[in-house]
Design goal:
The structure holds two protein chains of two kinds.
Chain A: H1 2-30, H2 33-62, H3 69-74, H4 81-86, H5 92-113, H6 119-143, H7 167-196, H8 201-232, H9 243-268, H10 272-295, H11 308-332, H12 347-377, E1 383-385, H13 387-407, H14 418-424, H15 426-442, H16 450-473, H17 481-490, H18 493-517, E2 520-526, E3 531-534, E4 537-548, E5 552-563, E6 566-571, E7 574-578, E8 583-587, E9 589-592, E10 596-606, E11 610-619, H19 621-639, H20 642-646
Antiparallel strand pairs in A: 2-11, 3-4, 4-5, 5-6, 5-7, 7-8, 9-10, 10-11
Chain B: H1 3-33, E1 34-38, H2 40-45, E2 54-60, E3 66-68, E4 71-77, E5 82-88, E6 100-108, E7 111-117, H3 128-136
Parallel strand pairs in B: 1-2, 5-7
Antiparallel strand pairs in B: 2-4, 2-6, 3-4, 4-5, 6-7
Chain lengths: 655, 153
């Protein structure tokens, strides 16, 4: 019964979304307050209905109702509760339910928080939001119904892929979706602005927090996925430039560009039509990402079995959304009034530079990801484009960008003084060179490492440069402390957020450069009692035994790490054999230290009484994860800026 | 020229310069880094340079896996021809005899030395390349009819 209620709520939601779309757009066109109000009501109703549907699906998972196809194929009664719940979105149908629910929640948030939005703009935003929800609901109901019943329910379910039974992955899809879907709000605002033919600072003030929130979620979601790949898959890497990873990375790049260009719209009333275009592209890339993951057109190491019919539906939707909105853009964008002028060297110029690089990067990733499709379609045979391609395109693009990231925030609006800023950064330059030199000496001073040392210098440049900018704002080294601390408190949260997020990027770079340059890998066949040297430690295979788990059996290896004969660490990786579905997984054991991770993997017993083992020294990897968290934190700080919450600055401020 | 036009021109030029630079980067990267896919039949019939990275795919031939400590030898077959593969390292969790596999590496003197054996998250999944290779060799048994099942990452 509960499942039927959910199904019914979903069907009802389809019509409510239709009403929301039509009423919102029509009401705004007519300028009819009552109709626009009805659209708002529909937005709230849509949220309630989709939440109800998702809740009833979750309930079916929790009580293990195997009369539902979806539950039977993806769950199992012996699974821990966390994974019963995360199993809801661990499959195609459920993940779409989550998607559309988040979409409806965001739409309702616009309804409820948008009291001081101009009513026309608000109604149009809600209307567009309703149409997007409509297409997703139709997709779910017609091609991927999660509430489908089985005539003869099985006694137990197939179980969730054990690789996905992991806390990191339980939360990875929701965050990713919060990001993807968050960009739909920016998209709706862009379409509404195109219909109105008006983009102003108030518009940007509305779009910025939504984009920022989406960006924070997406960053966290990508970070979680990457972290999971690192500790769960046991191959020692954290990013493979795989199509599925790229699918989430492209909207991130475009969203980052959008985040920065919206600032220019707000502060300087310039780059308006470009920002609109970016909002459209960012959401289109989110849809494209969904298409790539769901359709299976591209071979990926993640490789989900999937259904071409569904892919076709998403492709049609993508064509409609991207094609339709770009057409609208082509017709309406010229009528947007061009705004403030600026010189190439200026704060706007810096943000523009960021935009150029970010969108070029997103374009190259898109090209590399889709290239195998093109070649195949043109009869050029099967090819794959792997990490070497992306690295050789991406790294040269990022170098000027990171160099500019320290300079841009110090330039003034309209016309900046590049030489003056560089002179102000002379201590930062010196500090970065000293830091890089120290890294070079401490890693053995090899000529071959010089490129990596350059990367370290760049990271330090960005890190120190970001802090320096904040320090200068507060006159930290010029005014007395009392004055400086007062100024420091007066710096808006948005500025703090930027400094923190940019410093986070610097940490991420340190992690990337360090781990790709100084990684150590050892693969060997070890007998009990044997020892292998890993960086500064002797690793001994002390013992190996069978260990039972809740829904698996594990082979556990115990490794003892010692330095100069003194034991300092024990790690126990496992090789698990899950019972349902019967599948082996690798459970790594990792110890993080300030400078890097000790990473161990055990595999099947080898003939002759040994075990195949794999050890890594992964330098600076913890900095990578910390950096991602710091970036997210920067976004959050910025989000709490009062100016974002107030929305329209000229309006009446509530006490 | 008005300042506005001047700025437009400037932005346009900057954009074009970027596009040109990016295109140059992408093209050189494509030249060096594209990896072509070969079926075992292709390997037997086509000329392959020993220094060229390539991918092969097919089924792991039943009974062909020989583990010698950390080095594994096996045969990949499209059920017409097969090719010897050697790989050093830990195989992905879902590597099994009779299953589809994709390996990346170099081919010389009749032996494929794999540097990567690609991990699959879903054992019901057949890489499209492998399916195509099997179709080409006429050995496809229609796994397409198997119930599609999405697995979220």
């Amino acid at each position: 019964m509960i499942a039927e209620a959910g199904h019914f709520a979903l069907a009802l939601a389809l019509f409510v979304a239709l009403a929301q779309g039509v009423l919102g757009l029509y009401g705004a066109q007519r300028g009819d307050k009552a109709i626009m109000g009805a659209a708002s009501g529909a937005g709230v109703a849509l949220m309630l209905l989709t939440c109800l549907a998702l809740a009833s699906l979750t309930y079916s998972y929790v009580i293990s109702d195997f009369s539902l196809v979806n539950v039977a194929t993806n769950s199992h009664s012996a699974k821990p509760m966390l994974y019963k719940i995360s199993g809801v979105w661990g499959n195609h149908e459920g993940s779409l339910m989550l998607w559309v629910t988040i979409l409806a929640v965001f739409g309702a948030a616009v309804v409820l928080s948008g009291r001081n939005l101009p009513p026309h703009l608000k109604a149009r935003v809600i209307g567009v939001q309703g149409l997007v929800a409509l297409s997703f609901l139709a997709f779910i109901l017609f091609t991927s119904n999660p509430f489908e019943r089985l005539a003869r329910p099985p006694l137990d379910g197939n179980g969730l892929n054990p690789l996905l039974q992991d806390p990191g992955l339980a939360f990875h899809p929701p965050f990713l979706y919060l990001g993807y879907v968050g960009f739909s709000i920016a998209f709706s605002f862009a379409i509404a602005a195109l219909i109105e033919g008006r983009v102003d600072a108030a518009w940007a003030r509305w779009v910025r927090p939504w984009t920022l929130a989406a960006w924070v979620f997406l960053t966290l979601g990508i970070g979680l996925g990457s972290w999971w790949a690192y500790y769960e898959l046991g191959w020692g890497g954290w990013w493979y430039w795989d199509p599925v990873e790229n699918a989430s990375f492209m909207p991130w790049l475009a969203g980052t560009a959008l985040l920065h260009s919206a600032i220019v719209v707000e502060k300087r009333d310039a780059l308006k039509s470009w920002t609109i275009l970016l909002a459209i592209l960012t959401f289109s890339l989110s849809l494209l990402g969904t298409f790539l993951v769901r359709s299976g057109v591209i071979t990926s190491v993640h490789s989900f079995a999937s259904d071409p019919g569904r892919g076709l539906f998403i492709l049609a939707m993508l064509t409609a959304v991207a094609g339709g909105s770009l057409m609208l853009y082509a017709i309406r964008a010229p009528s947007l009034k061009a705004g403030g002028l600026f010189a190439p060297v200026s704060r706007e110029g810096g943000l523009m530079f960021n935009n150029l690089i970010m969108s070029t990067a997103a374009g190259s990733v898109l090209l590399g990801t889709l290239y195998p499709l093109f070649v195949d379609a043109l009869g050029g045979g099967k090819v794959s484009v792997g990490p070497p391609f992306f690295n050789s395109v991406f790294i040269p693009l990022m170098i000027p960008m990171i160099a500019a990231m320290a300079v841009g925030p110090m330039l003034t609006w309209k016309r900046g003084d590049l030489v003056g800023v560089l002179l102000r950064l002379k201590f930062v330059l010196a500090a970065s060179l000293v830091f890089a030199g120290l890294v070079w000496i401490s890693t053995g001073g090899r000529i071959g490492d010089l490129a990596a040392i350059g990367g370290m210098a760049l990271a330090a440049w960005l890190f120190f440069g970001s802090l320096w900018e904040l320090g200068e704002r507060a006159l930290l080294f010029k005014a007395p402390w009392a004055e400086a601390s007062k100024r420091l408190r007066q710096i808006p949260l948005a500025a703090w957020g930027m400094t923190v997020a940019h410093a986070g990027v610097a940490l991420v770079i340190v992690g990337i450069v360090g781990s790709s340059t100084w990684m150590e890998e050892h693969i060997q066949n070890m007998k009990i009692g044997e020892t292998v040297r890993l960086r500064d430690a002797d690793v001994k295979l002390d013992s190996a035994q069978e260990v039972p788990g809740p829904n698996y059996n594990a082979l556990q290896g115990n490794f003892v790490f010692s330095r100069d004969g003194k034991e300092f660490l024990r790690l126990s990786p496992e090789r698990r054999q899950y019972r349902m579905p019967p599948r082996p997984t690798t459970e790594t054991a990792i110890q993080s230290t300030f400078l890097g991770d000790y990473y161990t993997v055990i595999s099947d017993p080898a003939p002759g009484g040994g075990y195949v083992t794999r050890f890594y020294w992964q330098p600076m990897i913890p900095w990578l994860w910390t950096g991602i968290l710091v970036m997210t934190l920067g976004g959050l700080i910025s989000l709490f800026d009062r100016r974002h919450r107030v929305g329209v600055p000229q309006g009446k401020r509530r006490p | 020229m008005t300042p506005r036009k001047k700025r437009r021109l400037m932005l346009l030029l900057a954009g074009l310069a970027f596009l040109g630079g990016a295109a140059a980067l992408v093209l050189t990267a494509f030249q060096d880094n594209i990896v072509f896919f070969y079926s075992p039949t292709d390997l037997a019939t086509k000329e392959v340079r020993a220094d060229q990275r390539l991918r092969i795919g097919g089924l792991v031939l039943e009974g062909s896996v020989i583990k010698d400590g950390k080095t594994v030898r096996f045969k990949v077959t499209d059920l017409t021809k097969s090719v010897d593969v050697v790989f050093t390292g830990i195989l992905p969790d879902l590597f099994r005899e009779g299953q589809g596999v994709v390996a990346e590496g170099r081919f010389a003197n009749g032996l494929f030395t794999a540097s990567d054996v690609l991990a699959k998250h879903d054992e019901k999944y057949m890489p499209p390349e492998v399916a195509d290779a099997l179709k080409k060799s006429g050995q496809w048994q229609g796994q397409e009819t198997a119930k599609p099942q999405g697995q979220m990452k």
